[in-house]
Specification:
By secondary structure, the chain is mainly alpha-helical. The protein has a domain at about 40-250. Helices cover about 70% and strands about 0% of the residues. The chain contains 14 helices and four strands. It has helices at about 10-15, 20-40, 45-65, 75-90, 95-120, 125-145, 170-190, 195-205, 205-210, 215-245, 255-265, 275-285, 295-310, 315-320; strands spanning about 155, 160, 165, 245. The strands form two sheets. The chain has a two-stranded antiparallel ribbon with strand order 1-4. A two-stranded antiparallel sheet has the order 2-3. Helix 2 (about 20-40) packs antiparallel against helix 7, helix 3 crosses helix 11 (about 255-265) and helix 11 packs across helix 12 (about 275-285). The radius of gyration is 19 Å and the shape is globular. The protein starts with 9 loop residues before the first helix and ends with a helix. It is a multi-pass membrane protein. One of its GO terms (molecular function) is branched-chain amino acid transmembrane transporter activity. It is found in: Cell membrane. Keywords: Cell membrane, Membrane, Transmembrane, Transmembrane helix.
Length: about 325
């Protein structure tokens, strides 16, 4: 084993040793305050949905924005974890934290199995392989007995956190979702700004050079794939508790398309871009639902305008104006 397998190159390691910038600390603090009071301003279930999709988009951005790998099948981990968590709660009678945990672990294992095969291809071939596996998961969910077929798993009980704190009410569950989402985003931030994250950026920018430096590129790709799938599963498992439902919508290919839209709209390769993108898309879906199929058309128009006016995403353009990474 060469020295570079265990010790990152100096130029890759140095940025990770710096502390969190004051601007980022201020944004995280403001975000926490806003989320803490959000149930007073909007319906708690809507706020929880925004947080679940924000975490989902952030997990996807780890793979695309920092790993340089475009997946068209992330709904497999989001929806797969949703089914497992819902089944654990309803059939096995597990508490919400254990149900979410087992759903997240299932997504990580699924990500490991699919990622080990997918990373053997690059570019559009990689994307198509992930889509193919996601479709297999979809048809499994459609045909398997325990998933409920087209009806899904309904009336999932929320139970009590650690067997002590009931989370049947939306207000009580909200702060559990807030802790999970905020903790997940902080974890993603730490991953991106660690030596591991710096190597990922090097592979994304110039993979042959990373190979020449001695990095085992496929190991890094597989690791980031599994991390992204696991955190996407955390979002999906949490969502099943919020809506007390796991359905085919969660594993449908359109869900994979939505998370790509959220990430591109907010800003690929930024920390806060996917959060904004998810908020915009979920808000449109919620408040324009009365317009029926026109919601999809409006989303398409906004996406086209976003690509034309904000080539790097909304947060990406804002970062350029401020000359500071966001």
């Amino acid at each position: 084993m060469s020295a570079t397998d265990t010790q990152p190159a100096p130029e890759l390691h140095r940025p990770a040793t710096q502390g969190m910038p004051m601007l980022h600390k201020a944004i995280f603090a403001a975000l926490l305050v806003v989320l803490a009071v959000l149930p007073i301003l909007v319906y708690p279930v809507f706020a929880m949905k925004v947080m679940c999709f924000a975490l989902f988009a952030a997990a996807f951005n780890l793979l695309l924005g920092f790993g340089g790998l475009l997946s068209f099948g992330h709904a497999a981990y989001f929806g797969g974890a949703s089914y497992v968590a819902a089944h654990a709660s309803k059939v096995w009678g597990w508490s919400p934290e254990l149900s979410i945990l087992v759903g997240t672990l299932a997504a990580g294992i699924l990500g490991l199995a699919i990622g080990a095969l997918a990373i053997r291809r690059q570019g559009i071939y990689f994307a198509m392989v992930t889509l193919a596996f996601a479709q297999m998961v979809y048809f499994f969910a459609l045909q398997a007995e325990f998933t409920g077929g087209e009806d899904g798993i309904q009336s999932v009980p929320r139970g009590s956190l650690f067997g002590l704190f009931p989370v049947d009410e939306n207000e009580a569950l909200y702060y559990l979702v807030l802790a999970i989402t905020f903790g997940g985003i902080l974890l993603l931030y730490r991953i991106v700004h660690s030596p591991f994250g710096q190597v990922l950026k090097a592979i994304r920018e110039n993979e042959p050079r990373a190979v020449s430096l001695g990095y085992r590129v496929n190991r890094y790709k597989l690791t980031v794939f599994v991390l992204s799938a696991t955190l996407a599963g955390l979002a999906g498992a949490t969502k099943s508790q919020v809506f007390q439902l796991a359905s085919l919508t969660d594993v449908h290919w359109s869900m994979s398309g939505e998370v790509v839209l959220m990430t591109l709209l907010g800003g690929v390769g930024t920390v806060f871009g996917p959060l904004l993108g998810a908020t915009i898309v979920v808000t449109m879906q919620n408040y324009l639902a009365s317009m029926g199929a026109w919601v999809t058309v409006i989303q398409g128009v906004i996406f086209v305008l976003g690509v034309l006016l904000f080539r790097e995403g909304i947060i990406g353009v804002l970062s350029k104006w401020l000359k500071r990474p966001l």
